[in-house]
C-alpha cells in the first residue's frame, strides 16, 4: 500500500471537508457543537501532514509535534479571548477543534513518544522470532527518556544489553527505523565467522533445534535450520540457511571507523565496538541487512526495546507473543 499517496489524499481531503462544513454549519459557540465534517477535516490534515513530513524526518519525532498542534490551536484561541464553552461570539472551527481535542491528542503524542510506540515488522530479517506482519510494542523509555529530534537522554534509565531486541534509527537514513538484536556493546570484540558468533573470545552456543521454511511475497521458499542461542538472560532462535556465506564482502559499505575497528573477508567479520556505539545483527543471519554491512549504531540513534507482539492480522495466535 502506498502510504505516501494516502497521506497526500488525506492532506487534500481535510481542507475540502472543512470548506464543506462551513457552507452549511450554524454558528458554533461551544466546542462540543463543532460539525463532524470539520472535525474529520482537521484530523485528516494532521494525519496527512504527519505522513508527508515523514518523508523528511523520522516519523516518531514528527508524531509528537503533530499531536501537539491541537494544543497550540487551543492556546492561541485562549489568547484571542475564546473559551471552550459559552462564547458571546461564534467560535472558529479551528479553535473548537483545539479546545475539544488538545488533551487527548497531546496525551497520545506524549505516550507514543516517551512511553510505548507501535511498529510493524516489514521484513524477514528477525525470523523466526518476528515475522512479516507482526505489530510490535516498543518500550520507548528503556534506554532513557529522550528529547525528540535530538534523541539524547535527559533522564538516564538503562543501557542496551547483549541480546536485547532494539529499534533504532538506521545510521544511513535516520528517517527509517530498523529492528535488530544487540550483539555487541561498547568495548566488545564481536566475531561472526563461518556462521559462528564469538564475543570477547567466547563462543556463543548455537545448537540446531529443527527445520524452518518461509516464503516472502514474490520470492521462492527458503529452507533454513533453526538454531537455539543464548545471550545474557535472552534465549532465542536464529536461522541458518545451509550453503549461504556468513558475509558477502562486496556488499560491505564504507561506514565510519570501518578501517580502524573491523576486518571483513569471505569467512565473515570481526569488529571492536567503539564507545557510545552498538553492534546489531538480525536473527535471520543469512537474510539480514545489519551491522556487518553498515557498521555501528550510535547511542543517540536508539529508539527503544521491543517487548511484545500485539497484533498480526494473518496469525491471531501470535497476539501477546513475548519478544525474547
Automatic annotation (TrEMBL):
Transmembrane segments: 39-57, 62-82, 94-116
Enzyme Commission designation: 3.4.21.89
InterPro entries: LexA/Signal_pep-like_sf (IPR036286), Pept_S26A_signal_pept_1 (IPR000223), Pept_S26A_signal_pept_1_CS (IPR019758), Pept_S26A_signal_pept_1_Lys-AS (IPR019757), Peptidase_S26 (IPR019533)
Recorded family membership: Belongs to the peptidase S26 family.
Main enzyme class: hydrolase
Record organism: Chitinimonas viridis
Recorded catalytic activity of this chain's protein: Cleavage of hydrophobic, N-terminal signal or leader sequences from secreted and periplasmic proteins
Protein name: Signal peptidase I
Family matches, as Pfam families: Peptidase_S26
Taxonomic classification: Bacteria, Pseudomonadati, Pseudomonadota, Betaproteobacteria, Neisseriales
NCBIfam families: sigpep_I_bact (TIGR02227)
The keyword Protease is assigned to this record: yes
Membrane topology: Single-pass type II membrane protein
Superkingdom as given in the UniProt entry: Bacteria
Subcellular location: Membrane
Residue ranges occupied by any Peptidase S26 domain in the UniProt entry: 102-310
Gene for this chain: lepB
UniProt keyword list: Hydrolase, Membrane, Protease, Transmembrane, Transmembrane helix
A GO molecular-function descriptor: signal peptidase activity
Amino acid at each position: 500500500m502506498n502510504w505516501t499517496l494516502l497521506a497526500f489524499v488525506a492532506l487534500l481531503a481535510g481542507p475540502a471537508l472543512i470548506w464543506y462544513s462551513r457552507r452549511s454549519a450554524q454558528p458554533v459557540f461551544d466546542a462540543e457543537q463543532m460539525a463532524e465534517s470539520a472535525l474529520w477535516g482537521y484530523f485528516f490534515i494532521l494525519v496527512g501532514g504527519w505522513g508527508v513530513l515523514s518523508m523528511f524526518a523520522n516519523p516518531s519525532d514528527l508524531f509528537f509535534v503533530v499531536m501537539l498542534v491541537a494544543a497550540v490551536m487551543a492556546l492561541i484561541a485562549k489568547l484571542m479571548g475564546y473559551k471552550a464553552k459559552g462564547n458571546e461570539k461564534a467560535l472558529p472551527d479551528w479553535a473548537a477543534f483545539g479546545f475539544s481535542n488538545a488533551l487527548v491528542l497531546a496525551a497520545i503524542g506524549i505516550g507514543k513518544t516517551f512511553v510505548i510506540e507501535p511498529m510493524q515488522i516489514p521484513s524477514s530479517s528477525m525470523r523466526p522470532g518476528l515475522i512479516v506482519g507482526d505489530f510490535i510494542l516498543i518500550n520507548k523509555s528503556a534506554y532513557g527518556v529522550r528529547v525528540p529530534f535530538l534523541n539524547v537522554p535527559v533522564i538516564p534509565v538503562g543501557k542496551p544489553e547483549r541480546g536485547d531486541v532494539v529499534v533504532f534509527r538506521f545510521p544511513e537514513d535516520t528517517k527509517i527505523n530498523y529492528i535488530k538484536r544487540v550483539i555487541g556493546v561498547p568495548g566488545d570484540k564481536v566475531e561472526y565467522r563461518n556462521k559462528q558468533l564469538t564475543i570477547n573470545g567466547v563462543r556463543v552456543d548455537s545448537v540446531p533445534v529443527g527445520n524452518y521454511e518461509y516464503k516472502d511475497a514474490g520470492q521462492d521458499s527458503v529452507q533454513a535450520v533453526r538454531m537455539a542461542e543464548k545471550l545474557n538472560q535472552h534465549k532465542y532462535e536464529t536461522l541458518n540457511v545451509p550453503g549461504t556465506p556468513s558475509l558477502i564482502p562486496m556488499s560491505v559499505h564504507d561506514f565510519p571507523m570501518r578501517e580502524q575497528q573491523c576486518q571483513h573477508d569471505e569467512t565473515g567479520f570481526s569488529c571492536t565496538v567503539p564507545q557510545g556505539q552498538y553492534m546489531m545483527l538480525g536473527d535471520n543471519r543469512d537474510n539480514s541487512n545489519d551491522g556487518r554491512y553498515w557498521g555501528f549504531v550510535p547511542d543517540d540513534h536508539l529508539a527503544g526495546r521491543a517487548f511484545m507482539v500485539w497484533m498480526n492480522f494473518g496469525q491471531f495466535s501470535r497476539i501477546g507473543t513475548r519478544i525474547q
